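Lay summary. Proteins are chains of building blocks that fold into shapes, and those shapes determine what they do. In this project we predict the shape from the chain. Here is one chain we studied, written as its sequence of building blocks.
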Amino acid sequence: MRKKQNLIKKIVSGLNERLSRCDLCPRECGVDRIHGERGICSAGNDILIYSNFLHKGEEPVISGSGGSGTIFFSGCPLRCVYCQNYKFSHFPNGEKNTIEDVADKMIRLQTDGAHNINLVTPTHYLPYILKALDNAFDRGLNLPIVYNTSGYEKRDIIELLDGIIDVYLPDMKYIDSDVSKKYSKAEDYFLRCSESLKEMQRQVSRTVMDSDGMMKRGLIVRHLVLPGCADKSVKIINWLSANLTDFKVSLMCQFQPYFTARDYPEINRRVSPEEYDIVVNEMIKLDIDGWAQDYDTDEDLAGIYL
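And here is the predicted shape, written in a compact code that computers can read:
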């Protein structure tokens, strides 16, 4: 892990300085987080973690039999009206942690049998997370690092992570700017996401699995099908097929009208089986490797392997 630590030491100081006029995500709020100001993501100078545990409901190549060592960071630069994690993504709810505390969590997850360290919505805490990783590497952390993100990222920030992150696990939520503006207040979502996914692909280059079928290196793109948006999901699947090479797709149908989604009549329902089948069939037609969630009103996990 010495190479990763050397890379971290090269970039962490500059990233930390950027917190004084925060521009880590596409919102570029410019707030002084070092002195406690909070931007759109709701993060200030505290490292807030809502939960951390062995997650056995991620994609099979991430969770395996032992679980993914998942750390859910509070806050998020996206403002999705249907967010199922709104209690801590939209609000600064969670336990305050020091950098040493975060490193402790990583080491504990490894000790408990995690297949990887899964950083969920990490970018707004990136300087702190990198310091925690450096600390944990010194103490024997040797697991793949998973970067689990909404996909609303700046390419120049993702570029800095080359050689540090092993597995990228981004969403691609939208392809139409009017939809991303309406439901996530991010008109530039597709521009930012598409640039970032191409950079993630460049870095990991090709998928690498271990002897147990766990992903050690690679790119998995998640996509949640929204009600009334099957045609837009088909566009996304086609874009992925045309623009990325060695990657997997995780297709999800678990949408529920959480949070304020009920204020939008057109999405105040579940995705229908017919809508979902349109997208699954497109994925099959294009011979894209990955997973499609079983259509089940109580199902929250990744399902059948295609």
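What the prediction tells us: The chain has a mean pLDDT of 95.
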